[in-house]
Structures are given as C-alpha cells and as structure tokens.
From TrEMBL:
This is XRE family transcriptional regulator. It comes from Paracoccus siganidrum. It holds the Pfam family HTH_3. Gene3D superfamilies: lambda repressor-like DNA-binding domains (1.10.260.40). The lineage of its organism: Bacteria, Pseudomonadati, Pseudomonadota, Alphaproteobacteria, Rhodobacterales. PROSITE patterns: HTH_CROC1.
Length: 102
C-alpha cells in the first residue's frame, strides 16, 4: 500500500485518520480497514461475522459509501469496535488487542 504523508504532521495520512476525530468517509474507511487487518480477517469473513454481505461491507471500507448506523451497530456487536472509534477515531472503548496495535 502506498502511504501519503501529511506535510504538517509528518505521519502517514492514514495513521492520522485513525487518530483524528473526523468522521469523513475516508477516515471511517481507514479505521474499518485497519481494525479488520489487526483482527487478521479478510473482508468477506469480517462482513459475515457481522451479518453483512461483502457487497454491503466492501464499499464502507473502500470509502465508496457512508457507513450506516445499522451496519456500524452490527460491526460493534460482532467485533467490539465502538461507534466512537468507527465514526470519530476514539480508542477508549476498543478491545485491548485492537487498541494496542493502532
């Protein structure tokens, strides 16, 4: 994966999106992708465990579609990702395994 660096912050842009309290589609997608990678799941398995079809979940992770509240709640229940993390990047309530690897 090619990383884009922010001149102002010196961190890879994707890493900043994980931390920033922004709810842009791109930032939400980056958080979902990173959490899934930490859990060592492919998109299909991650989606299935949350009761989502791959064609529903995929566009969330690629930033092609806004994450719906209904889908976010399913992801929260299946994988322990808090709504605050998915939408705003807050890591306070994440499972330890995910929080320590961000």
């Amino acid at each position: 994966m090619t990383r884009t660096y922010d001149a102002d912050h010196g961190k890879p842009r994707e890493d900043r999106m994980l931390e920033d309290l922004e709810d842009s589609r791109e930032a939400v997608a980056a958080r979902l992708r990173r959490a899934r990678e930490i859990l060592e799941l492919d998109q299909k398995t991650f989606a299935a465990k949350a009761g989502l079809l791959p064609q529903t979940y995929g566009p969330y992770e690629t930033g092609e579609r806004d994450l719906t509240l209904v889908s976010a709640k399913k992801i929260r229940k299946a994988h322990g990702l808090s709504l605050e993390f998915m939408y705003f990047g807050k890591i306070d309530d994440l499972p330890h395994k995910i929080a320590t690897k961000l």
